[in-house]
Structure formats: structure tokens, C-alpha cells
Amino acid sequence: MLINLSILDFVIVDKMSLDFKSGFSALTGETGAGKSILIDALSLALGQRNEGGVVRLHQDKADISAIFDIKRNQEVINWLEENELESDGAELILRRVIHADGKSRAFINGKVATLQQLKELGESLVDIYSQNSHHSLLKLSAQRQILDNFGGHSDLAATTFQLYQAWHKLYMQKTEYEKNAQIYSDELAELRDKLRELKQFSFTLGDWETLQQDHVMMSHGNELIEDVNLCIEHLEKDETAISDRLHLVQQKISHALSIDEKLKESSDLIDSINIQTEELLRSLNRYLQKIDLDPERLKDIEARIQAIHNFGRKHRIKPEDFESTLLTWQARMDELESFQSDEGVDAKEKAALEAFNKSAELLSEARKTASETLSQNITAAMQKLSFSHGSFEVKLTSQDPTAHGLEQIEFLVASHLGAESRPIHKAASGGELSRLSLAIRVASISKANVPCMIFDEVDVGIGGSVAEIVGKLLKELGHHDQRQVLVITHLAQVASLAIHHYKVSKTQENNQTLSHIHLMDDKMRIDEIARMLGGISITDTTRAHAKEMLQA
Hints:
The protein is an alpha/beta fold and 552 residues long. Among the domains are: 1-125 and 453-469 and 484-519, Rossmann fold (3-Layer(aba) Sandwich), CATH 3.40.50; 186-339, no CATH class. It is 56% helix and 19% strand. InterPro entries: DNA_recomb/repair_RecN (IPR004604), P-loop_NTPase (IPR027417), RecF/RecN/SMC_N (IPR003395).
């Protein structure tokens, strides 16, 4: 449930912090006051794409934060845990900062997030229905989604989709293999030869690096021996041997130390230097004893290096890539061999098709049950919205298997008694389509798990007694425990039935237009309902009418 929306420097809003409550809330105000701006701001906090021009004039950035109560939203809590985002299990804070140059940053509970993460969370937090939402209802994909959401089998639909994709991939592999069996057979034979040749090297990247180092060392062996011998000679054998000179220095410092203890550090250093010099001599002598310049070993090393380079040139592979290439070839060979085995692609394809069919059949049964209930619910809602004797049908037509199941889903409507049921885009006029859209939405989301639903002027084109019925339907929808229904409306009949009523207004300040919103008390509500009923001139009669509507 949305509990707070804070907006800073967004379009014509300078600074706003608004608390929301559960139940049915109405937002009203003059046209252009900024009612839909609130929905636009919330949509951006939920990860909607920024189309630009949202930062208030002369400001650097817009800042939007939305706080949600998630104590009863286990789906959101689980998502936060899976994505390693901190949460106390009570509140969730989504924030979006949009700069004037169009760049933006997103945050979840104070941590940097992606827009995709905001979108994923938003799907479990808020559903927004706009006045143009009936356009999406004309699409078969939207009709299918409404039925699956209503029936509570969206997860089964997603599983069916994934199983179809897995089967279709294997089917294409099978078809491709059958078409190019000889080509694959030749490829397999070539892979076996290449793998056998590569495995003969017993190649590892570590051995390759050592082999090259040994080759460099043995190729310059005489230089190495000469240099090491010269070092030893300078250290201890010639007339000016370094070790003799260091020992002399050590003796002198030791004598000086007996006179002045301040030379203790220097004495320790010369002792250490002498020890290190002796260790250096031992190390150089050990190296000379171990160095192996066997000409035959050098030939073996050069032959192995040449063989590796020849193989690499032949197959256009660098030695550094031999190990990864081996894995790639092995995986491809295993794949080709599986095509030829008893448990090859044919068997896998049949198993995958069986798994898809099983899931799709379960989905078909679930859809059949849900379609009957949804048809009844929407028909009942239509009756309330002046579709006298009208009827609604969710039609399931069998079709060849697709990623979306074994049937096509289509919404049919008969708008009056005796009318033939037809697709909604053919059977309903513009005004009827608006009412029908509302009936479908209200009836289909009665089982929705999303705790916050926002209707943005979905009652456009509706008036009179139908408007009052719409208000009652929305109020009834908001009676559900911990459900929140926010409605932006121009109809007094709808707004008067709200539990909470917010007014949106705009003012001119410092040559700028600013939007404001506040929760109204009973007296303020009477004036606002009267304005919605009577227009500019508010009379005692319209006030009395407004008071009567609020008390009904």
C-alpha cells in the first residue's frame, strides 16, 4: 500500500509530501491543476521511462520518492531478499532522481538500483488504469493476460510459455539435424580428429608458460653462466671482493659502536647486509649446480613449441586459447553425438513436447473455469452500468499449440437484448467502450493481489445515475482489507462516495504556476462537491445538494 509520495521540482510542483490511507480515495480539481501529474510522478518512481521535460523550470533536477507499506506483501519481501536489497519487512522506499539533461538515477531503500528493478517491484505494488486503458483491452494479448490474472494462473501460463520455448528449440534442432545429417556427421568426424590431436599435447596454459620460459633460459644458457660466475667473482674472488670490503666495514662500525652506542642501528644494518651477501653467494652457487643446458632437452622443447604453433596455425587458434577451445569443441561434439544416440534430440524433443502439452492442458482447464466466472462477473457489472440485458463472454477457441497455450482468448460482448455477441471493438461505441472497460477492470481485478489500484479519469464520458454506480463499484472495490483505490475524477457522484478526498489546485507565484494538493475536511468537501456540481457559481442549492450526496 502506498503511504507517502514526496515530490520536489517536478513539472509544476515545487515541493509536496502527501500521505495516503487505505480504502477509496478521490483526487479532484480544476482541469490543468495537476491531478495527473501525481500519477506521472509515481509512474516514474515505479520505473517508467522518462520522456523528458519533467524538471521544473529553472531547476537542476526533479526528485520523487514513494514509500510503501509491505508488511503483508510477501511477494515484494521475497523479491528484496532474492536481490539482496535491505528491508525491514515493514516499509519500502523507491526513489527516482531525474536531471534536467534527461539522465536519471534510481534507488531502492537507499541503494542504487536499475529501472528494470523498479519496474519489477512496481508490478507487485501498484496497478494504474488510465482513461485510455480501454485501447489496450482491444488487444487479444491484454485479454489473455486479464483472464490469467483473474484466474490466478499467471505462473502456470509463464511455465507453459517456457516449456514451449524449450520444446520449440529442440524441434528446430531436430529438423535442422534431419535436413543436414551428412554435414553434421562430417563435422563430428572432424571434431573427433581435432580433439584427439589437441589432447595428445596434454596442454595446460601453465605448462605452456613454463615451456616458453625454459626455452628462453636454455637458448641463452652460456650468457647466464657467464653472468652468474662474474657476480660470484666480484662478490668474493677478485682482489677487491665485495664480501671482504663489507667485512672490513663491519669491523670498523663494531669498533665505533663500542665508543658511541648511537651507531647501533648502523651496526645492525651492516650485520644484515653481510648475512644477505653470504646468502646471495650460496644462492648463486646453487643455481650454477642446478642449471641444465642439455642440448637434447633444448631440441625436445623446441620441437614441442613448434608442434603447438603448427597446430594453432592449422586451426587458427592461439596457444593461449587452447584450453577454452577444447571445452567448446567437446561441448559441440557431445551435442552432435547426442543427436545420434538413442537419447538424442528426437527423444528429448518428444519429452519436451509431452511436458508442454501437460502444462498447456492444465492451463486450458484453469482458463475454462476462470472464463465462466469472469464472464458472469463482467455481465453483472455491465447490468449495473446501464447495459440492460447485455452480456459478456470470454470465448476460448482451440488452436494449434503456441507459446501461450492451446486456445485463443477473445472477449465478446452483446450490448443489448437480442444482440449477437461480437468482439468488443466491433460491438461497442466509444461511450459504451469506456463503460465496458470499467466493468471489465472492476470485475477482473476483484481477486488482484496488487494492494494499490489507481484509476486516472476512467469515468470520462459517464454521467448521471451511471456515474453514481461507478462510484459505488469503486467504493466496493476499496472495502477489501488493506486495499487502496485512488481515483482521479471530475464526477461529483464518484468523488462523494470516497472515504478520503484530496483537492488539487494551482496558484501563480513569482511568475510561475505551481500545483498544490491537500486532504480536505468535511466542510471543504462540501464546497468541492458543490463546485463539481455547479461550476463557477456555487449556490446554497448546490451546497445543499453536495451535503446530501456526502451524507448518503
